[in-house]
Amino acid sequence: MSVTIRSTAAEMAAALADGSTSSVELTRAHLDRIAAVDGAVHAFLHVDAEGALAQAAAADERRAEGAVRSTLDGVPIAVKDVLATEGLPTTCGSKILEGWIPPYDATVVARLRAAGLPILGKTNMDEFAMGSSTEHSAYGPTHNPWDLDRIPGGSGGGSAAAVAAFEAPLALGTDTGGSIRQPGAVTGTVGVKPTYGGVSRYGLVALANSLDQVGPVTRTVLDSALLHELIGGHDPRDSTSVDVPLPDLVGAARQGAGGDLSGVRVGVVRELSGEGYQDGVQARFQESVDLMVSMGAEVVEVSCPTFVHALATYYLILPAEASSNLAKFDAMRYGLRVLPEGVESPSAEEVMRATRDAGFGDEVKRRIILGTYALSSGYYDAYYGQAQKVRTLIARDFDAAFQQADVLVSPTAPTTAFKLSEKLDDPLAMYLNDLATIPANLSGVPGISVPSGLADEDGLPAGIQILAPALADDRVYRVGAALEAALLDRWGGPLLDRAPALEGA
């Protein structure tokens, strides 16, 4: 079969299997694409052309010997720069880790290598995953391939933009409050947040330990399922890892692609729509719900009253955990070290202060201050303690909703991609982009964002979010694949084929 960089990862894997292409050819084609367009997109912070081609050559040798390691052996991938990669820089989008090269791989990266996927490089991100636009990267913003003057979402905008711009067929992201799903919605890609603990966090530079989750960024639901099955499963090195087998995700995606949702109960969450949601986003969401009905799904409205408190809850818990996690960047052991000016023999505290002032960006400093305050004596119970109680109530609302429905749905993000710098000086407006995605992180349930079409106002992508109970990740793949198939039929082909910003590149 004939494949190009616009083919899906599954199609690339099939072409490798039938011998019509090689991993070296695929990898070189993507490296050429990166060279051609990434100056405009800035999806990558580091490209490892030599390493990727060497891994591709090894994949071709294995295939010739009949020793293929996985379905995706030889299909190239990009990795978010918050995951440790042995021999490759891992900066977390921060000056404080500029040039740091880990001596080990994150478990998910080790699993990619074991499965034979060549790693193209590391993708841009908001510093330490704090942001919704990838404008908080210390190395400059990433641009949305649909409109280079707009944001690609965040914090994982680099991974989403790389996949949307056909610089990589697959990518890994991390989702703390929507950082895979929200970029997926605004770039027209598929983004998955697995069940918390379903994918190893070992080697992920933590933002908030109880919220972070690694997941796939792809162009199709099936590609996400294929990648999820490679990286998922128990890891004894991760204390948060769940020791249960993964459900059949690829089988669920293939079943869903048949277009039959008979017997599936779909719950529309009342609190995750309406006021504050762009008209075009809401219209595409309603059309998607109608399509699910046409495929046999039963749709009911469910109410989760505590979801209205999710944003405030999240922005107490996350900064608290972040302030604790980032305390290790103290200029003593690794990373940046800055000596204070005019001090002949500075103390450790003075060096730490100067280093953190120079190494951390404004958003990171803002959240460290907020988190330290929330954890301080006299305020812990009033803020952090109360937030944890509300978190429990949110989880109970999910449990009650899943008694009425097999999956829950909502728009993924309230709006399409906004202009670069439009909300950079308004943190509260920026935080509202995660309004619909945050509840899933607070409760640990899995979710997927699937492109739902183009908003009438601006012609930019919108997304629909599908949520399922913990450990029922197969449900989001079944429903997501069914909806994707119906929408592809309606559009007459992949939505990304309409992206105008990089036409002719």
Helix tally? 16
Largest sheet: 11 strands, mixed
Write down how many β-strands occur, each being a DSSP E stretch of 2 or more residues.
11
Shape: globular
H and E string: HHEHEHEHEHEEHHEHEHHHHEHHEEH
Low-confidence stretches: none
Count of the domains: 1
Structural class call reads: alpha/beta
The CATH architecture can be named as Alpha-Beta Complex
- Classified in CATH, the superfamily is Amidase signature (AS) domain
Amount of helix: 25-40%
* Percent of residues in β-strands: 5-15%
Classified by CATH, the class is Alpha Beta
| Overall average residue pLDDT | 96
What brief labels describe this structure?
Amidase signature (AS) enzymes; alpha/beta; 11% strand; 16 helices; 505 residues; eleven-stranded mixed beta sheet; 40% helix
Written description of the protein model:
- By secondary structure, the chain is α/β, with parallel strands linked by helices.
- The protein has one domain (9-307, 392-498): Amidase signature (AS) domain (Amidase signature (AS) enzymes, Alpha-Beta Complex).
- It is 40% helix and 11% strand.
- It contains 16 helices and 11 strands.
- Strands 1-3-2-4-6-5-10-11-9-7-8 form an 11-stranded mixed β-sheet, with helices on both faces.
- Helix 2 (23-41) runs antiparallel to helix 3 (49-64), helix 7 (221-231) runs antiparallel to helix 8 (249-256) and helix 10 (310-325) packs across helix 12.
- It is globular, with a radius of gyration of 22 Å.
